[in-house]
Amino acid sequence: MKSTVDPAVIATIWSVIVERAKTPSPESYTSRLLSDDKGIDKVLEKVGEESIEFIIAAKNGVQERTIQEASDLIFHLLVALRAADIDLADVMQELERRRK
Fold it and tell me: Is residue 38 part of a domain?
C-alpha cells in the first residue's frame, strides 16, 4: 500500500509559480520560462515535450520514468496555466463540477 501524500503539494507549487511570475529571478527556471522571448509558446513547447515523454514512458511500462515524466508534465501544465493567466482555482472548480 502506498503512503498518502498531501495533495496540498500542488497548491504549494502553484504558489511558487505565481510568486516567480510576480517577482522574476534569473536563477529561477520558472521565471525564465514565463519571461522567455517566445512568450507562452515556450511554455507550451515544454508541455508538448513533456506530454510526449510521458506517453512514451507509460507506453513502455517504465513505472519510475512514467512517474518522473508525469511530474514534469503537471509542473509545466501549471506554468502554462499561469502564462495563460488562468488561475488554478478555476481549473479545480471545473474538475469539482465534473465530478458531480
Answer: yes
- How buried is 72 (Cβ within 10 angstroms: 0-12 exposed, 13-18 middle, 19+ buried)? middle
CB atoms within 10 A of CB 25: 12
What's 24's domain CATH number?
1.10.287.1080
pLDDT tens digits, residue range 59-93? 999 999 999 999 999 999 999 999 999 999 999 99
Give a yes or no: residue 2 inside a domain: no
DSSP 59-72: HTT-HHHHHHHHHH
Take residue 49 and report the three cell numbers written for it.
515535450
- Residue 8 CA, chain-centre distance (Å), reads 14
If one counts the domains in the chain, the total is: 1
